[in-house]
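REVIEWER CHECKLIST
Item 1: Sequence provided? yes
Item 2: Single chain? yes
Item 3: Sequence as submitted:
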Amino acid sequence: HQGNGLGRALVAHGQQRAAAAGVGVDLESTNPRTLPFYGSCGFQRLGEFELLPDGPPAFRLWWQP
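Item 4: Structure as written out by the authors:
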């Protein structure tokens, strides 16, 4: 289903609802391949942290309307 715009539409819908409520969106992902996608949706990368010992890093992202 990649490349058909469904993910972007879902993110945009969430951003519209957040903007209407006057709040930002805090997002965490353990998949580094998603970072360019979320960046193209306006999310800023705040940093990374460890969820589990010896596990993959988790990335924290933020979007502000």
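Item 5: Key structural point noted by reviewer: The chain has one domain: 6-63.
Item 6: Recommendation: ____
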